[in-house]
Amino acid sequence: MKRITVLLALCLIFSGLVQSQTTAPASFGPTPNSRQMKYLRSPMAAFIHFGMNTFAGSDGIEWGNDVKRPASTFNPAKGKVDTDQWVRLLKKAGFTRVIITLKHHDGFCTWPTKITDYNISKSPYMSGNGDLAKELSESCDKYGLDMGIYLSPWDAWEPTYGDSTPGDYNDFYDGQLRELLGGAYGRLNTETGKREIVEIWLDGATGDGVAHQTYDFARYVSTVRELQPNCLTWMTLGAAQNYSGPEAGFPVDAFWVGNEKGYVNDPVWMKVAVNGTSVSQYNMNGKYMSIPEADVSIRPGWFYHTSQDGSVKTLDYLINSIYFRSVGMGIPLLLNVPPNREGKFHANDSVALMKFGTAISNTFQTNLLTPQMSVSAGAVRGAGFEAANVLDGNYDTYWTMTDGQTTGTITVDLGKDVEMDVIRLQEYIPLGQRISGWKVEVEVYGSWKEFGSGQTIGYQRMIKGALLPVRKIRLTITSALAVPLVNSIEAYRSDASITSVGPVPAGINSTDASALQSLKSKKVSKLKFEILEIPSGHWPTLAEMQFYNSLNGTREEISRNGFTATATSEAKQAVNGEPDCPASNTLDNSISTIWQPEWKPKVSMPQSLMYNFGKQIDLSEISYLPRQTSDQDIATKFNIYTAENVGDPYTLSLSGGTFIATQKTAQFTPIASSDWTVLQNYSNTATAIQSKTNTAVAQFGVQGGWFRLLGSKSPSTGILEVWIDGVKSADVDTYAASLAKDVVLYETNSLSADNHVVMIKATGTKNNSSTDSKIILQNVFKLENGVKGMFEMSKAFDESREDAGTFTFEIRRYGSRSEPASVTFITTPGTGGHGKTYQDKTEVIQFAAGESVKTATVNILENSLAEGNKDFYIELNNPTNNHIPGFNTVTRVLVYDNDGDASNSNLNGYCAPGGTQHSGKKAFLESATTTGAKKNFNYNVTSSPASVYVKYLDDFIEAERGSTFTLNLKAFQAGERSTATVYQDFRYNKAYIYADWNADLTFTADEKIAEFGQQPPSNNVLGNYDEVMNITQSISVPSTAILQSIPVRVLYHNAWNALPNGACSNVTDGMAYDFKLNVVMASTGIKQQKENLFNAYYNPFSKKIICSGDFSVNTKFDVINSNGVLVKTQSVARQQNEVIISVPNLSKGCYLVLIRNSKTSEIKKIIA
């Protein structure tokens, strides 16, 4: 009986364990409501801007401000608006909801509201009987599309708008809400018999100088919930201020992503934290769920303009710059398509929509992963949470592990090579968003390579890469806030229209430098390839051998018709009865068949392949492609023998040639000794060649007026010569203080349209600073035959002050320039919008024959709002006369705000690293100082900070663009340098330094300045003492660094663990520091004062110089031109804060304003 009792007890314990193991994880943090989940599941929404602005002015306007236009202005040219066309095309393109602007900021209502006379019934449209809300509702019924509405809170027409005006505007606005949401409009739900609005946009925008109106958002939301409980509320996060209620009552279902470019950056935490009036978005620890919505227009403007018909976004841009950066990041996309004055989508917009929808539909039509494939995981929670759940197609099943596990790996084995370029991941967010770091790898031909990595997954994350034949997919969760839940892994092959292409624009010929070698061509009738060495543990294979002759830098393949091949050994039934592997397989144009020598038993090296050409050919190079289904089965050392005639004996032509063991693509080698060494996989753009002799020559041909030579500059490279058509054109010194690849070594745009021969010669000379005279070449870019030229923006990044008035930029033309051509530029929004930061512009720039550079301008708009720095973009398109867009066709323009604190002096908006300090509290920075900066700083402490993250704002560094300063980091030392005694300080950490040079509130891999220490350390006791305890790091400020306060972030992290999420990682047994760096403009020849007490700028509209500061009595102002001539002088007779100097006849140019008084003097530079 006792034995039975014990067994029963054990059974109960075991069953309890099983039950515990298979219980679903508890929810973590905020979770999405049904409105949000519906949108995340169907994240394609369309925006319709059609109203008063469409018909205002000669070609429509963007920003109506408070200009009051009569209702009669709204007058569609062809009678009834074609809402059927809108909805039909949107549905076909894959959209699931459409949101229409029924009232924009001008206040005009496109439904017959009873609340105001300023509405569609007072317009000529449909003789006063029009109702766009009703017409769109009926079209949505017809084609099955959900409907949402945009109802602008700002109303420039309504007299009750403004807190100080008579009447209550909130009553007015609530009345309009009730009209629209009361059941008359929206798509008909056939099950309930009620019309439903799925989303309402309460745009928070207001114009400059508009009377303040306090919006009663709580009342608005209450009305929405009362009348349309399933309607998602989109509004400013300001509506959530002081909210402390339950998650279910949080008012903001969705919010603005933060730009008008249609993208979001990683990490995408769909959580909001509220602390009184402070509302923090994208907050990993936020208490409320709110989803960012990415909005962007298909053309530059939100409203239709005829002038922008040629500026509709390309398919490539819509897919790669918008779709995969919004929907692919797990958030909804709201794409605006503005109808024209006829009330229809323009043909260009319609075509773009169809291409966009077709590309997406074709891409995601077939999931390449099936439930029958093998899935394994490093750990599994138990029954019901198996790894196979990620392939079962059921959203509500998922793979997970036991509570507390925040890292893990899951692998999908496809069983065969499958070509794919898109991988989609899903996290099961009904139980909360958890994953904070992930990596996807793919196995290609037996080798694992990273396909993508990031921080959050959220509802979904799509990774689009190059098309690869993938055998396995491995997802690694590198960090999570709680045990991760993964409910889906999918893979796709993208539609051919969007399959990834290389970095070189279409129409540009990119010639790999290995083809530029001036190789000696030999007359040969047969060739022997003798394999001398192979990687240890591997076996030589050859899929294809190809033959080339090079002339003027053009590698021409020789037809292999009539060629035969034999070998000293050929494998018979190489593996498990597979086909034989004869030498003839290397000539059969198939990469799936190979030659390999007999390996059962293995023959010894050397082994040879012999090729008989059947005739005499001119030959300079061969290429070797190894087996593609294995790794390192390649000849790493070889000899080449040739014979001029079939009956002649072989003679040694190349001795000791080498190939890279790990390269799977074809590798080229000259058949005879060369003056160059080929550097395989040298950079992202190409293989490189490095001169071996002082007489090395590279040669290529050019047809047309332009070419661009890329190579390397380094501390150990010398001087080269460029010769064109036998005439020396230039000496180029390739020395640089540090290695830089993909550098433009030489470029010309002045050649005739004829054929030219270019020679690049090593000289064997160098400057005194270089340690060697070799040269390294990488690529030549030239125009393809038939392409007459290309257009580029002169800069990828530029900047302007808000009060500059205009921004001037250059467009450059490359090519023969013998004929006229034109290109169009358009402006598109970034964080700065139309009519707020800049004046929208589309302009065709005409280049006459012979012209290579043109300037153009965009108006910069001044306002009095302290809104921070904003950016916008200028893009080139529509080149004519067989010209093409070049490499750099977009300029990002950053506009510096001149109101309030635009410098982000408190370093707000950055991710705050968390993690753990060392338990002994002896791992911390004792001091951080700088030397060589314009203003140095000093951080000193005597004990460990209380928190793992320190944002130090009591002092700051100031450094000029283009300057270099030194950062000195001294760690607290718990004991001496020792290989015998363990001391718990930073010696067991690695250190990392980052700086956010582009001030985009993120730290990219390019912004990592340095890292110190080994992972793991080579000595477990000494650790990384020598590398991290005292760091001296030189920091070079880029010439394009943003002029504001940015953090220099220093992280110390356990040296045995990888840093999972870059500068936003939670550190282990370490510390994280942000030190403030103020980036300032580089000094001119004028000595800078220690303090900048005064400011001065020129207003081109008023033709006045405005000076601001604390001006004491008798402060004098001298305006001096670039020739040193005094143009204007002025002084003040009383203390004042602003002085205006009238200069009505000031010519264009640069001027100095000398401001001086008895205490100080400053010189300010202005541009007229």
Query: Biggest sheet: strands side by side, in what order?
Result: 7-6-3-2-1-13-12-8
Q: How many individual β-strands?
A: 63
- Global mean pLDDT: 89
Q: What percentage of residues falls in helices of 4 or more residues?
A: under 10%
Low-confidence stretches are 1-21, 1084-1091
- Rg for CA atoms: 34 Å
Largest sheet, if any?
8 strands, parallel
Please indicate the percent range of residues in DSSP E strands (runs of 2 or more): 35-45%
The end-to-end distance, rounded to whole angstroms, is 103 Å
Structural class: mainly beta
Outline type: globular
Continuous helix count: 10
In brief, what are we looking at here?
With 1168 residues, the chain is mostly beta strands.
List the defining traits of the structure above:
mainly beta; 63 strands
What's the SSE blueprint?
Blueprint lengths: L1 H21 L11 H8 L2 E5 L3 H4 L27 H10 L4 E7 L28 H12 L2 E6 L17 H13 L5 E3 L4 E3 L2 E4 L14 H11 L4 E4 L18 E3 L14 E5 L2 E3 L7 E2 L1 E7 L17 H8 L10 E4 L10 H17 L10 E4 L30 E20 L7 E10 L2 E8 L6 E20 L5 E7 L15 E5 L9 E12 L10 E8 L2 E4 L6 E4 L39 E13 L1 E5 L11 E7 L7 E8 L8 E4 L5 E4 L8 E4 L5 E7 L3 E7 L5 E6 L2 E7 L6 E9 L6 E8 L13 E8 L5 E5 L3 E5 L4 E10 L5 E9 L12 E6 L5 E7 L10 E8 L5 E3 L4 E7 L28 E7 L6 E3 L8 E12 L3 E8 L17 E7 L12 E5 L12 H4 L1 E7 L8 E10 L16 E10 L14 E5 L4 E8 L4 E6 L4 E6 L4 E7 L7 E7 L4 E7 L1
Parallel strand pairs: 1-2, 1-13, 2-3, 3-6, 6-7, 8-12, 12-13, 39-46, 40-47, 50-56
Antiparallel strand pairs: 4-5, 9-10, 9-11, 14-15, 15-18, 15-19, 16-17, 16-18, 20-38, 21-25, 21-27, 22-23, 22-26, 24-25, 26-29, 27-28, 30-31, 31-38, 32-37, 33-36, 33-38, 34-35, 34-37, 39-41, 41-44, 42-43, 42-45, 45-47, 48-49, 48-51, 51-54, 52-53, 52-55, 55-56, 57-58, 58-61, 59-60, 59-62, 62-63
Helix pairs in contact: 4-5, 6-7
